[in-house]
Amino acid sequence: MKRDTIQATNLLIFLFALISPETFCQQPTKPFPWPEGKQAAISLTFDDARASQVNGGTALLDKYGVKATFYLVPAAVKSQLSGWKKAVASGHEIGNHSLNHPCSGNFVWSRSKALEEYTLEKMEEELVEANKQIKEMLGVDCKVFAYPCGQTFVGRGEGTQSYVPIAAKLFDNSRGWMDEAANDPSYVDFAQLTGVESDGKDFDKILLLIEQAKKSGQWLVLAGHEMGEGGDQTTRLAMLEELMKYAADPANGIWLAPVGTVADYVSSKR
User: Fold this and answer.
1) Which residues, by range, are in coiled-coil regions (predicted)?
2) Quick one: how far is CA 57 from the chain centroid?
3) Which of 105, 141, 169, 249 is an S-S bond match for 114, by CB 3.0 to 4.6 Å?
4) CA–CA dist 170, 134 (Å, integer)
5) pLDDT digits (tens, 9 = 90+) for 140-180
6) Which domains are present in the chain?
């Protein structure tokens, strides 16, 4: 029995020698090198070219010197053209949000432009045309895109296809919607950036997201629609003001910048 015990002990020692220490304890990852030692990045983004964005929203951003990313539907730009030209002159980033904002036909309002009835060719034509119209109106070449409704497919059933590759071909980066987490700058696919909803939230809710992002050195892309004080799909101006004041304090370690600016920086560091 003694010999058997010794042999068993020697076998265990041998097996443990083969196992790396990393098997038992997760090694800390190296923090992502954000500019000036910042702990996390935040991008403010808004969809659809809604009137409230240039009728009050951009004025608040400009007051604090903050630049946001606006994903535009060309038809909505035309009714507020002077406001959007001013936004461009102020340095805000302009992106593409498609020509007709197609989403699943499960949304009744999208039944006439349902993604289930789209083809990849039709989607590419629509994105190219939206780029063309935005360029004609605002003189901007769109390098960033947001998927309408956060949906990235065309077709249905066995014929369903992803149009992420088309977005990746046409744009430097593309953002989703209603996602649950911030982006890991060391890993993120620029064609599928996560977008976390900012609509309907007070600053205390946003602060929880920020603190979580800071723990892992992540990039939080906030996504909203209307910019005002209340109502459906509205990012509250009071919340934005608190957020911008928070980010302005160097002690909080936040880099607040448009999507394209952060993406270019992340790309350069990878």
Assistant:
1) 113-140
2) 19
3) 105
4) 14
5) 999 999 999 999 999 999 999 999 999 999 999 999 999 99
6) 38-269 (3.20.20.370)
